[in-house]
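Researcher: Quick test of sequence recovery. Tokens follow.
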């Protein structure tokens, strides 16, 4: 590029790949102010002003506002370069971006988790997977709350008490709601029963607020359809254990893959029933 003493707005637009409209706006807000000839008020830019534009583009890439850019440029023009001032601005921007990144990470994990559940349900429905199988369940920490189950599935899954409890802990969760029915013997009767509501935390939880689930072999079976017919799946699992010589240990866990959160069509509900086994 050949250096000149003066550049027209058209020259600057072409050389720096910046529209004339943007250059006029930069002039209006005193970000880059061209000089003007007295006799015709024609604006022209110095070589120094021209070299300011790549700096502005880089500030823009880093997410600084036009007002912040203007302050940086003015301080640089007046003091030569105030290291402390610009370093402080950069430090504040780093903190802001770290906060934004945490929010984006939280949103990504939440959406990705829900997306994966829908994909899982689609595969189960497409293959009509209803067989009982043995599988190893990875261990993980879960937030939990003890409650009483009154055979109202919707209120237990879209659970106001659970949501308020999470709010009190200032905790966010991911993945499906799980209900741990403490007594397998009483799971299929109509009486109120003790349960534990469980869900994975998005970040490390306060001490004493989580329980460990998994790290064992479990019998697993998908139940497709309304929750009110889940006893059919339990009957199937009881018969399977008797046939193959397995004993169930403890209560059952119901993992709600798709439910009222995702669809109003109960025929599309997919629930995984998990029970620890031994021989």
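Model:
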């Amino acid at each position: 590029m050949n250096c000149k003493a003066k550049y027209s707005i058209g020259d600057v637009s072409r050389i720096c790949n910046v529209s004339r409209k943007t250059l006029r706006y930069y002039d209006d807000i005193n970000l880059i102010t061209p000089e003007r000839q007295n006799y015709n008020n024609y604006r022209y830019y110095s070589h120094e002003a021209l070299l300011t534009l790549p700096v502005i583009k880089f500030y823009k890439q880093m997410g600084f506002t036009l007002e912040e850019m203007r302050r940086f440029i003015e301080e640089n023009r007046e003091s030569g370069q105030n290291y402390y001032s610009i370093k402080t601005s950069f430090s504040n921007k780093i903190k802001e971006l770290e906060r934004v990144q945490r929010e984006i990470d939280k949103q990504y994990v939440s959406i990705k988790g829900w997306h994966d559940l829908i994909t899982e349900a689609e595969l189960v429905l497409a293959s009509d997977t209803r067989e009982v199988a043995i599988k190893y369940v990875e261990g993980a920490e879960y937030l939990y709350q003890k409650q009483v189950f009154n055979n109202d599935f919707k209120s237990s899954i879209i659970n106001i008490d659970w949501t308020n409890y999470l709010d009190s802990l200032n905790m966010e969760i991911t993945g499906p709601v799980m209900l741990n029915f403490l007594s397998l013997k009483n799971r299929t009767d109509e009486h109120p029963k003790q349960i534990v509501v469980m869900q994975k935390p998005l970040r490390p939880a306060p001490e004493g607020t989580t329980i460990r689930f998994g790290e064992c072999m479990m019998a697993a079976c998908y139940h497709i359809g309304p929750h009110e017919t889940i006893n059919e799946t339990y009957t199937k699992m009881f018969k399977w254990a008797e046939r193959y010589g397995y004993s169930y240990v403890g209560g059952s866990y119901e993992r709600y893959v798709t439910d009222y959160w995702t669809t109003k069509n109960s025929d599309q509900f997919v629930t995984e029933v998990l029970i620890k086994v031994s021989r």
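The chain has two domains: 9-81, 108-278.
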